[in-house]
Amino acid sequence: MKYTSLALAAAFLLAACTAGVKQGGPVYLAVTRSVEERVADALPRLTTEEKVALTHAQSKFSSRGVPRLGIPEVWCTDGPHGIRPEVLWDEWDQAGWTNDSCTAFPALSCLAATWDREMSLLFGRSIGEEARYRKKDILLGPGVNICRTPLNGRNFEYMGEDPYLAGQMVVPYVRGVQENGVAACVKHFAVNNQETRRTSTNSVVGDRALYEIYLPAFEAAIREGGAWAIMGSYNLYNGQFNCHNKRLLVDILKGEWGFDGVVISDWGGCRDDDEAITNGLDMEYGTWTNGLSGNASDSYSNYHLARPYLERIADGRAGTKELDDKAARVLRTIFRTSMSGVPHFGSFNSPEHYAAARRIAAAGTVLLQNDGTLPLKVPAGGKLVVIGENAVKKMVVGGGSSNLKTKYEITPLEALQEAFPAAEVIWERGYVGDTSSSYNKVDTGQDLSDPRSPGQLLHDALAAAEGADAVVFIGGLNKSKGNDTESADKEDIVLPYGQDGLIEALAAAVPSLVVVNISGSPVAMPWADKVAAIVQGWYGGSETGHALADVLTGAVNPSGKLPFTLPRTLADGPLKTERQFPGIRVDGEKWWQEYYDEGVFVGYRWYDTQAIPVQFPFGHGLSYTEFDYSRLALSRKAVSCAGSFGLDEGTEEVLRVSVDIANVGDADGAEVVQLYLAPPAGGVERPVKELRGFEKIALASGEGGKVTMSLPRRAFSRFDEDAHKWVVDPGTWKVLVGSSSADIRITAPIEVR
Ligand code: BGC
Q1: Is the CB–ligand 1 distance for residue 81 below 6 Å?
Q2: Which parts of 587-703 fold into alpha helices (H)?
Q3: Exposure of 147 by Cβ count < 10 A (0-12 exposed, 13-18 middle, 19+ buried)?
Q4: CB of 105 within 8 A of CB of 81?
Q5: Which residue's alpha carbon is nearest to atom 6 within ligand 1?
Q6: Which atom of ligand 1 sits closest to the CA of residue 157?
Q7: How far apart are alpha carbons 39 and 76 in whole angstroms?
Q8: What's the total number of domains in the chain?
Q9: Is residue 270 domain-shared with residue 151, that is, in the same domain?
Q10: Which residue's CA is the closest to the ligand 1 atom numbered 8?
């Protein structure tokens, strides 16, 4: 059967396939042909030029489609915390539309801190709906690079230091996004753990650390989550740029994991004409119109996968096999998204989305320390003093490509004033941090300039705090350069702008100081034992203030847990040398070299194994109630594991671990029950324990419940570099169940053969 155009084919399908439409119900176009049949049907109709046009950008965020056949353009958007405002065709600046202010969701570090798969699904669904409403086909997120160093400027866009946590949290997000006919583009693949010299540094990492630490979250997103897109990172691995890295993209991603979606370059990350063709890249996007550098007057036809590709095909230097594969993948993406046949319409700025943002932000807020001062007690007619720039600074704007324009952003101060209408809630600045208010021409409209000297600011803060019923300091980092932002790393984990000194001075003057640290990455808290309570807040998006106030007032009982360790000092961490971070020059090598000498000993795997005390451990987070752990029970069960990631198909025995949890305090609350495995002594050096399971359970005061977790063989495995496979070390293992990596409540041995 021959059609003159795909539009005709679509018309035929429409006529032939509307069976199943429910009378009176929603109207669905039931496309009966599978995506693969449609790809096979469409591909041969395309000319070489049309196929090549599918593989590179035509504007900052779009590629061309095939207009002749009615195949639409592909539109991408950042990602990962909300839908980016429309930008100019060739420029980063926002286009100035008036209908593109989105719901800003919390940063992914906050989502990870919920340790709650349901929150991740809610996040994915909500942001997917916003993307679909804005007619975006590919959402550039989520990011799952591991927090190898607290200094990474993009930690706030990622999901913490543990591959299992990140892997569990990314899967529902991806599924939720894709339910809307929007492809989730997981990023940045892979071993991209710093911003310093991000486009000129080669990550030198052994296979064990690669497979055990840096790949699992990506693998989960692809194999469990079924992500339709992935973004190559800017850095090099194995001496090759990751946007066309043969080992990562061809061997591992498309080979070992069987990925059938589309590999997208990071913006300007494609660097070589030939490798772009042969090494697994499918779509090239750019920072400027000629790829990496240049300006807007060049042409998109200069892209590696544009004119150079056509020239190579014309003179025989390149064949068309790879081109067909790339074009098929782009078509598959289009048939999965804009042409799926299922009419997704999405929704934008709905009350439900703002409610979701608030719920997630509150669920991720971590109560680090509390002597009973929290929840806040401020009597009617009383005085609550709020000190610190982050109580008023709007932080949805900034941070790099995750910069958003939101309809509104509730600040912590506004939310606290709302929460205590009968009290006097006053604010003093305390310190001057970042006074900027705009990014890519998105402006918060705030004027944060302040002429006062640090001495005057301290004096004014102390004066304000006098006679207060409660004093809350709200500071931390922001999204300016050298804080939490793309393109630059932090220099230290010490709080900037003299905040440590200010907190010490306040703590000396105020009996029960509450400190709220807002950041997306670990900071040091040397004053911890001098203050009454500490809360870790995050870049919470549109509803950030409400979410924080919910926890401070007790309207929400905190249940977040740290997704990364808070060390005492940077020097305590595993990265000791320049060769580890930020990399060195090596004779004979063109690029900077960064050696992952610490291997698998990242985050708590390092601190635990070296017995180095930390300020607050991975997985830590308190509640306004108490939980009791009892009756740890282990049982073996055979399950079928078709397609379960990292495992052969067939039947395998899993270890079932159950534990009884009781809420023995006065408030309703939720606990994240964490399961770690400790390997047998001897043999290959392994971390003393590793997270292998978790469940969040909500219990009313006085209520009890049971949590059950399953451990597959992979949970007991380590990656054997020489054999290139997962192996299990036999011996006596220990199952450790607790409330954080350092608060193990109950254990049991298990013999592994
Ligand atoms: C960032 C990506 C982002 C892209 C498009 C790049 O600079 O690394 O995360 O998706 O720009 O804005």
Answers
A1: no
A2: 604-610
A3: buried
A4: yes
A5: 267
A6: 9
A7: 21
A8: 3
A9: yes
A10: 266
Nearest residue to 538 via CA among 526, 529, 525, 551: 551
> Per residue in 183-192, pLDDT tens?
999 999 999 9
* Ligand 1 lined by 267 (C-beta under 6 Å): yes
* Alpha carbons 634 and 278: distance in angstroms, whole number: 49
pTM (whole model) above 0.85: yes
Mean pLDDT by 10 residues, the chain (753 residues): 39 36 40 91 98 96 97 97 94 92 98 98 98 98 98 98 98 98 98 97 98 98 98 98 98 98 96 96 82 61 93 97 98 98 95 98 98 97 98 97 97 98 98 96 95 98 98 98 97 98 98 97 98 98 98 98 98 98 97 98 98 98 98 83 47 88 98 98 95 98 98 95 94 97 97 87
79 lines ligand 1 (CB under 6 A): yes
Going from the C-alpha of 261 to that of each of 59, 243, 539, 573, the distances in angstroms are 22, 15, 31, 37
For residue 728, give both structure tokens.
């299990």
Which residue(s) pair with 651 in the sheet?
A: 640
**452 lies in the same domain as 535:** yes
Residues with a catalytic annotation lie at 266
Residues 683 and 559 both lie in one domain: no
CATH code: domain of residue 126: 3.20.20.300
Domain annotation covers residue 93? no
Q: Is 250 strand, coil or helix?
A: helix
| Residue 595, CA distances (Å) to 24, 204, 606 in order | 62, 5, 16
CATH number assigned to the domain comprising residue 398: 3.40.50.1700
Encoded tokens for 565: 């360790």
In short, whether 266's Cβ falls inside 6 Å of ligand 1 is: yes
Residue 403 lies in a domain: yes
The answer to whether residue 69 sits within a structural domain is: yes
**Is the CB of residue 621 less than 8 Å from the CB of residue 560?**
yes
* Residues 297, 306: Cα–Cα separation, whole Å: 16
For 221, 227, 232, 263, 496, the CA distances from 175, given in Å and listed in that order, are: 9, 8, 20, 18, 38
Task: Write out the two tokens for 192.
Answer: 């991209």
Tokens for 216, please give them: 């699992």
Q: Is residue 419 in a domain?
A: yes
* DSSP character string of 449-475: -----HHHHHHHHHHHHTT-SEEEEEE
Is 331 in the same domain as 372?
Answer: no
Show the domain range for 12: 5-86+100-336
Q: Are 510 and 463 in contact (CB under 8 A)?
A: no
**Residue 311 shares a structural domain with residue 198:** yes
Q: 123: which 2 tokens?
A: 């996040």
Pocket test for ligand 1, best of 189, 267, 292, 404 (most atoms within 8 A of CB): 267
For residues 328 and 365, state if they share a domain: no
What does DSSP say about strands 669-678 and 731-740: parallel, antiparallel, or unpaired? antiparallel
Instruction: Give yes or no for residue 374 CB within 6 A of ligand 1.
Output: no
* pLDDT tens-place string over residues 531-574: 999 999 999 999 999 999 999 999 999 999 999 999 999 999 99
* Alpha-carbon separation of residue 232 from 12, 93, 104, 140, 546 (angstroms): 38, 24, 25, 11, 36
Residue nearest to atom 11 of ligand 1 (CA): 267
The alpha carbon of 536 and the centre of ligand 1 are apart by a number of angstroms equal to 27
